Amino acid sequence: MYKSSKRRVTSFHLWTVDMHHLRQIGQWYRSTKAGWVLRGGVLLALLFGFYLPFQQNLPSVAHPTATYLGLSSQAPQGGADVSPPSKDANPASAIAPQQHGDPSSVDGQASGAAPTLPQVQQSLLLEKMTILLDPGHGGSDTGAIAPDGTYEKDINLAIAQKAAKALQEMGAKVILTRNNDRDLAATAAQSLALRAAKAEQIHADLSLSIHCNTASDTQLHGPEIFVYPDDIHSVRLGVLLQMRLNPILDGHFTPENGSVLAMVRRPSMPSVLIETGFLSNATDRKNLESGAVQNRLAQAIAMGVADYVRGKGVPQEMLRTIHLSPYPPVP
């Protein structure tokens, strides 16, 4: 009995000592700065222990702008610039050397490879733009006639219609001066006046006149763009179109001064005249008569417009020939 009682007393004594120590620890925990720090650490550990597993299970949500433009939430590969142009950007700042990309390729493809519309251009990049496409000549005005009897007016219309479709897929409103083979007026001068007036009438943002070239020198080949040299926007547009079109027909031209041409000089908006190739050159002529090559030229035109809208800069070397060409095209 004595031993058993002694054991009970000893156990009670030990319990009493432990409680005394616990009270001392609790008082320190509540009243000292170190105790408050410890309490805060415990609270943070509990919060993070709940939040991190919850956050890992949340679905990722793309930024609304990236979704709208059809862009991935990841950074584009290859350093591609997909930033929308700033409304306050200085137009002159766009005439800057291009520090990346190869002008002899289209979207990283080898020279001559068929360009395809990248994802950004499948979006509504051009949804607020109105673009005038002018297939040159028409009706009794055949334009240039190739040695095999091909009429320039027919190739102009085919490429313009394909380019209109590509631009519409990017959201642009596209108006053609003609959508079939017909005369717009009794004379060529009246026809040109009507075409230029149409651009003003529809309040076009851009005017692109599409033609085929010809020359006595049958070795000349490739696309050629005519711009209005006093308009920085026309120059930028022309250079970017030239860079897109050159690889299709192994071209080497840089934009020329087109201030003597009605469809370059008259419209008040940025305007260019596109000579897609030379009907006087056998290789160009064969390509221009090919529906597949016409599609490639049309999509290159659409991508050149997209480059312009996105504010892409141009290499200085592409500006060296803004002068009157020795081979002016037929208006």
Which structural traits does this protein have?
disordered C terminus; elongated; 2 domains; six-stranded mixed β-sheet; disordered N terminus; 331 residues; 9 helices; Aminopeptidase; 41% helix; alpha/beta
Briefly say what this structure is.
This protein has 331 residues and is α/β, with parallel strands linked by helices. It is built from nine helices and six strands; from the N terminus they run αααβαβαββαβαβαα.
List the helices and strands and how they pair.
Blueprint: H1 2-31, H2 33-56, H3 64-68, E1 130-135, H4 152-169, E2 173-176, H5 188-201, E3 206-213, E4 224-227, H6 232-245, E5 256-257, H7 262-265, E6 271-278, H8 282-288, H9 291-309
Parallel strand pairs: 1-2, 1-3, 3-6, 4-5
Antiparallel strand pairs: 4-6
Helix pairs in contact: 1-2, 4-9, 6-9
